[in-house]
Amino acid sequence: MLTPNWSHHTVSRILPPSPADAKAMAVYHDSEYLDFILSPYNFSERLAGDLRHTEFGIEDDCPAFSGLSDYVCLVAGASLKAADTLQKGEAVIAICWDGGRHHAQKSHASGFCYVADCVLAILALKRSRIPSPLNGVFRKPRIMYLDLDLHFSDGVSQAFASSISSSNPQILTLSIQGRVSAGLCCRAMWGGRLGRRSLCDLELVAGND
């Protein structure tokens, strides 16, 4: 992270993450999914054929592996630590290098992503209050989520899709990605209504860097 008074002389600091517990992740994730993903016993060889693996997305590009439960807690905890550092004014930039799990869904894993750490961090930042530069009165923050990836940020965008109907949305999500399958995904989820106030999606054609 970089401190508020950072300059070219500033050296970034590395902060160890604190593993997130089930309560912290239940702010977004379903309890049944958390009960399953946080139990190491569910990923032992004895339960390799358990149908719940399919139910909760633990298959294909989201395989079970030793230490999965600890990994989920650490990824979520690291992104929440970054959000907390920003909230306290201890940094102006905070990076979680293993975060950004933008495909994880509320009730199942998806696309190499087991926990919606981005959503959890945004929700944490959303609960903070910041002083207005005009009169010092504390107000709700407005947060922009920028996603740069080959694929559409379906997990994060879906989590805040309800903001479309809000007259004063706090969250803006902007996903910039290639044309692999993003258009199909967007239309399937929101019927082509993206780009209204709080949800933006930009597809890049081949050759655009």
UniProtKB/TrEMBL annotation:
Q: Which domain of life is it from?
A: Eukaryota
The record's listing under InterPro entries reads: HDAC_I/II, His_deacetylse_dom, His_deacetylse_dom_sf, Ureohydrolase_dom_sf
**Primary localization:** nucleus
Quote the subcellular location field of this record: Nucleus
Q: Histone deacetylase domain: from which residue to which, for each copy? A: 13-176
Q: Which GO terms describe its biological process?
A: heterochromatin formation
This chain's protein is named histone deacetylase
